[in-house]
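User: Can you help me understand a structure? I only have the sequence.
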Amino acid sequence: MTDSAPETTPVKTPLNIAVLTVSDSRELAEDRSGDALVERLESAGHRLAERKIVKDDIYAIRAELSRWIADPAIDAVLTTGGTGITGRDGTPEAASVLLDKTIEGFGELFRMLSFDEIGTSSLQSRALSGVANGTYLFVLPGSTGACRTAWDRIIQAQLDDRTMPCNLTMLMPRLKEV
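Assistant: Let's start by predicting it. Here is the structure, written out as tokens:
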């Protein structure tokens, strides 16, 4: 299996997507998971809005996510890392309190697809997704394989306004309705 993005026809409605890697040990030069996400979102026709690496610290993660969620120019955020169950894994806790709505089906579907690839180890993933201030947020494990699975098999289609019967992109104008 390669890290390169699958061939796609560019989306009709390109989104501005930020990528956040959560790691105590990676620098940008070694961030293969972040690289895989950037390559895939750009291959699909979306734009990389910003990319950062933060340490496994709930408040540092939350601060960066909050900044991006408050920025009306950013449509979606992809995080990679910190979704496990060890003491330092806190990305779900950092992100979940920021969400206005949780998309429960994302984590469920991700773990189901991951089971086909890594078996029962998939239960250790706390991947999640939701909406915060009209911005989609996807919290992904730190492995390159997990990022490929999430993007290739779920996120890409849902951020493509041509996916029918429905997709997340078509709902964007209504996310801030009261």
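Now, to help you interpret it: The chain is about 35% helix and 20% strand. The longest strand covers residues 47-54. Let me know which part you'd like to focus on.
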